[in-house]
Design brief:
With about 675 residues, the protein is of the alpha/beta class. Among the domains are: about 1-155 and about 210-375, no CATH class; about 585-665, Golgi alpha-mannosidase II (Immunoglobulin-like), CATH 2.60.40.1180. Helix content is about 20%, strand content about 20%. The chain has 14 helices and 28 strands. The strands form 6 sheets. An 8-stranded parallel beta barrel has the order 10-11-14-15-16-17-18-19. Strands 20, 21, 22, 24, 25, 26 and 28 form a 7-stranded antiparallel beta sheet that branches. Helix 5 links the parallel strand 14 (about 275-280) and strand 15 (about 345-350). Helix 5 (about 325-340) runs parallel beside helix 6 and helix 10 (about 495-515) packs parallel to helix 13. The chain is globular. The relative contact order is 0.10. Bound molecules: calcium ion (CA).
């Protein structure tokens, strides 16, 4: 989600029920006991099913059992028994697989609406009731052999951010299971021009990890009316530990969405690609009606001075990660996805809403499962928060949560123009002031401490925020705002179509050659457009879908992106893991206005390219420069990647074409 209030309000405000007072009269949250055992929610065996709910403020809790996920009368209503540390327990004898249940909490004499609870892992249609299943039944064939993608350094990762519908929904995708988890399991799919699409396309492009937009159960799509083909990004969480039903082939049968998501993970792993989940623990779809509110009113959210929901998310509420059972909830939830679904990474929406201690705790717990699990997030929030600034997991505090990366809006906006100035361009579109230049250099050094960067001149940050380049995401576009092509069209109206395409290529060259972790938005490699609509969270498929005919029409763009990724993955000089390495081996060289020039000492980091020279020319016109003497091989020049047929050059005077990059080695 976005950096800003305004957008967040647009994105979430229309989806969210009216804000109302939290029920802070239920007592002092600090007195609520912490329950530390791992049996919250359902414990299933064929002999019995046990349900445990943490609801310390409840006066009574009724468990209702149903035959269906929606509708019908309860088969049983059972008074749950008060148990240890604020929990309530009930046991259902016999094999209850296939049945559904809800909890109904009474607190302060008031009986709240039914809820599937917060610890459920399987739900019926629209996530209204929790389901009794045996998780072992959801494993696809061969799941026991499925392995997470191991990475040596996080800088080895190349992220591709994707919405399920964007990727596969178009008629010309060649994919059968359009808009579903299963789309990513289909091998051998082709565009009408006979080019690879789907998962084969991803392998061809060479990315290492797919970041899937929210895929937990969210609230904005009616799963019982999927034929209406409604679209939403899904930043409106309902059940955090169950997959979204709209992406399954059958949202009514609880096991199906779980099995199909696992099939997706398995297929990507077999293709050598990791899966990163976009997680949105910072707020819920609704306030008083959320599963959090219907279980322990008020506890999971922060309150402002008047006892109202505070709103750092811009969506009507914000969660309170600093409270022990909220911290525990978020941590156990990501652990569950990592362990049960073999997830390779997590992208935290509006991460600054979470406190630093929670992020560090969660990183430590994930490391116990695998240090290859990548964690990153938006180091900002979308409104004011009662959480003091020094406790926020913001990018400015980034050094206090090691091994967790933050998005660099500094390099993003340095390249494309500031997000709040719609008509304003950046370095890649020809706006080449010192501020742009230093913001690009900030990206090149991976937001680390480097003696040749003037941090005071950088876009939004006056200091490096990464301990190491493994802790920053360099990017120029994501689902938010205009996609890259549309942004360039908007700010470079005076440029020719050919020049605009060169701006796109230059911008991504900076992303892919910079130290740090590169990230591209799905479809940018096909020169996608969103029809110049800025925020498309609920726009129809016609706006959001990838048009696969572009793979032929814009084959030049695809070839360039593919070449960039291939080069990065083959050459460790672009993927240094420590600040010390970058400071020692990356040297900026004085260069004409509107250009950035630097060398990489490849030899020092085991690269077969002993020395690498990189030049970015943001000027629309060509620039005369001087190459150091030597036998150089040019792999990128004048808007072309030529890895397989580099041109040799002996140094001396050199003409760098407008809006282009030079990459050479010797
Ligand atoms: Ca849903």
């Amino acid at each position: 989600m976005k950096t800003i209030f305004k957008l967040a309000a647009i994105v979430c405000g229309v989806l969210t029920m009216a804000c109302s007072k939290t029920q802070t009269s239920v007592g002092d949250f600090a007195t609520y006991p912490e329950y530390k055992k791992n049996d919250l929610g359902l414990t299933y065996t064929p002999e019995k099913s046990t349900l445990r709910l943490w609801a310390p403020s409840a006066e009574s809790v009724t468990l209702r059992v149903y035959a269906e996920g929606v509708g019908g009368e309860a088969l049983e209503s059972i008074a749950m028994k008060k148990s240890a540390k604020g929990t309530w327990v009930a046991t259902l004898e016999g094999d209850r697989k296939g049945q559904f249940y809800t909890y109904q909490v009474t607190t302060e004499g008031k009986t709240l609406a039914e809820t599937p609870g917060v610890w459920n892992k399987a739900v019926g249609v629209n996530g209204l009731r929790a389901a009794i299943i045996d998780l072992a039944d959801t494993n696809p064939e061969g799941w026991e052999n499925d392995r997470r993608i191991e990475v040596e350094n996080f800088t080895d990762i190349v992220i591709y951010e994707m919405h399920h519908r964007d990727f596969s929904i178009a008629d010309n995708s060649g994919i059968t299971n359009k808009g579903k988890f299963l789309a990513l399991t289909e091998q051998g799919t082709l565009t009408p021009d006979g080019l690879k699409s789907g998962i084969d396309h991803l392998k061809e492009l060479g990315i290492t990890h797919v970041h899937i937009l929210p895929s937990y159960d969210y609230g904005s799509i009616d799963e019982s009316r999927l034929e209406e083909n409604k679209y939403n990004w899904g930043y409106d969480p309902k059940n955090y530990n169950a997959p979204e039903g709209g992406y399954s082939t059958d949202p009514f049968t609880p096991e199906v969405r779980i099995r199909e998501m696992k099939q997706m993970v398995q297929a990507l792993h077999e293709a050598g690609i990791g899966v990163i989940m976009d997680v949105v623990y910072n707020h819920t779809f609704v306030n008083d009606g959320s599963n959090f509110s219907l279980t322990v009113p008020g506890y999971y959210y922060r309150q402002d001075e008047d006892g109202d929901y505070s709103n750092a998310s811009g969506c009507g509420n914000e969660t309170a990660s600093e409270r022990p059972m909220v911290r525990r909830y978020i941590t156990e939830s990501v652990k569950y996805w990592a362990q049960e679904f073999h997830i390779d990474g997590f992208r935290f929406d509006l991460m600054a809403i979470h406190d630093i201690a929670t992020m560090n705790h969660l990183r430590k717990e994930l490391d116990k499962i695998s240090p290859s699990i990548f964690v990153y997030g938006e180091g900002w929030m979308a409104g004011g928060s009662p959480l003091p600034g020094e406790l926020q997991a913001s990018k400015h505090n980034g050094k206090q949560f090691p091994r967790i990366a933050v998005f660099s809006d500094d390099v993003r906006d340095g390249l494309r123009g500031e997000w709040m100035s719609a008509g304003e361009g950046g370095f890649a579109t020809g706006k080449v002031t010192n501020r742009q230049k230093e913001s690009i250099k900030f990206g090149v050094v991976g937001a680390t401490e480097h003696p040749q960067v003037d941090y005071e001149a950088v876009n939004y940050s006056s200091a490096p925020y990464a301990n190491n380049p493994t802790e920053v995401i360099n990017y120029v576009s994501c689902h938010d705002d205009e996609c890259l092509r549309d942004k360039i069209d908007a700010v470079a109206k005076d440029a020719t179509p050919e020049q605009r395409k060169r701006m796109d290529l230059l911008a991504q060259t900076v992303v892919m050659t910079s130290q740090g972790v590169p990230f591209i938005f799905c479809g940018e490699e096909l020169y996608r457009t969103k029809q110049h609509i800025r925020n498309t969270y609920n726009q129809p498929d016609e706006i959001n879908r990838i048009d696969w005919s572009h793979k032929k029409t814009h084959a030049d763009v695809f070839a360039y992106y593919k070449g960039l990724i291939q080069m990065r993955r083959s050459h460790p000089a672009f993927r240094m893991a420590t600040t010390e390495q970058v400071a020692a081996n990356l040297k900026f060289i004085d260069s004409p206005e509107g250009t950035v020039m630097y060398t990489l000492n490849g030899e020092a980091v085991g690269d077969e390219w002993k020395e690498i020279l990189v030049i970015y020319n943001g000027n629309r016109g060509g620039v005369d420069m001087v190459f150091p003497q030597g036998e150089w091989m040019l792999v990128c020049e004048d808007g072309r990647m030529q890895l397989d047929a580099p041109r040799s050059f002996t140094g001396g005077p050199f003409y760098v074409h407008g809006t282009s990059a030079i990459i050479a080695y010797r």
